């Protein structure tokens, strides 16, 4: 999942980004509405966490334009304006969810996970294939009943590959889903992460290299 945090309070924005990365959610930050709209054009975000009172282009206008021009991007409004009228107005602008400040961080994560599921074909929350069981909410991975300790990036890559249901994903796609905008597309980050992930999961390998296409989750033919 790729999330853009559009929040003018740098301390809150940084705290949210740090927390989301610990939850294996790739997150970037902008501090005004103009940069938020530009970022959505430049990057493939799944969700925008949007402060309503943004400088530059106001958050209400950002929400309206996203709903109109980028309907595939979900919007979660995160704002101090939390009355019933405020929430109704936010939904009328095109927001998909609305969370008043102050908020509890676990609730933000749960709401983001729920919004992510709306953009995907129906699938069981817990993924289980080829002897690997991945629970995205508990952030646990088991191989043949044995708990596997993974880094946040390794978990995110495995989750992305398993959701592809046997389809091959290129390094660029994995970068977009598991890393933030600062990731270097010309580095060997994906290759190293996949190599380490294979070793942690053990044999027989369940992540295959597809020449010219990238990687897929599944056993060798």
UniProtKB/TrEMBL annotation:
GO terms for cellular component: cytosol; protein-DNA complex. One of its GO terms (molecular function) is phosphorelay response regulator activity. Residues 124-219 form the OmpR/PhoB-type domain. The keyword Phosphoprotein applies. Pfam families: Response_reg (PF00072), Trans_reg_C (PF00486). Residues 124-219 bind DNA. It comes from the Bacteria. GO terms for biological process: regulation of DNA-templated transcription. The modification 4-aspartylphosphate is found at residue 51. Residues 2-116 form the Response regulatory domain. Keywords: DNA-binding, Phosphoprotein. Transmembrane segments: none annotated. This is Response regulator transcription factor. It comes from Ruania alkalisoli.
């Amino acid at each position: 999942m790729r999330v853009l945090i559009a929040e003018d309070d740098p301390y809150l924005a940084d705290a949210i980004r740090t927390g989301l990365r610990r939850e294996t959610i790739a997150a970037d930050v902008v501090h005004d509405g103009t940069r938020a709209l530009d970022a959505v054009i430049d990057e493939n975000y799944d969700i925008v966490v949007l402060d309503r009172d943004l400088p530059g282009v106001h958050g209400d206008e950002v929400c309206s334009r996203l709903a109109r021009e980028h309907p595939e991007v979900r919007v979660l409004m995160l704002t101090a304006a939390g009355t019933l009228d405020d929430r109704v107005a936010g939904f009328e602008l095109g927001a998909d969810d609305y969370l008043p400040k102050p908020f509890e961080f676990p609730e933000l994560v749960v709401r983001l996970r729920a919004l992510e599921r709306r953009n995907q074909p129906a699938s069981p929350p817990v993924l289980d294939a080829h002897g690997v069981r991945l629970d995205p909410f508990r952030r646990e991975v088991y191989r043949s009943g044995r708990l596997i300790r993974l880094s946040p990036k390794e978990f995110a890559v495995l989750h992305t590959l398993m959701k592809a249901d046997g389809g091959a994903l290129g390094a660029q796609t994995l970068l977009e889903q598991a890393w933030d905008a600062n990731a270097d597309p010309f580095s060997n980050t994906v290759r190293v992460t996949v190599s380490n992930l294979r070793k942690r999961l053990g044999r027989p390998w369940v992540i295959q290299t597809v020449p010219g296409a990238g990687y897929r989750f599944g056993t060798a033919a």
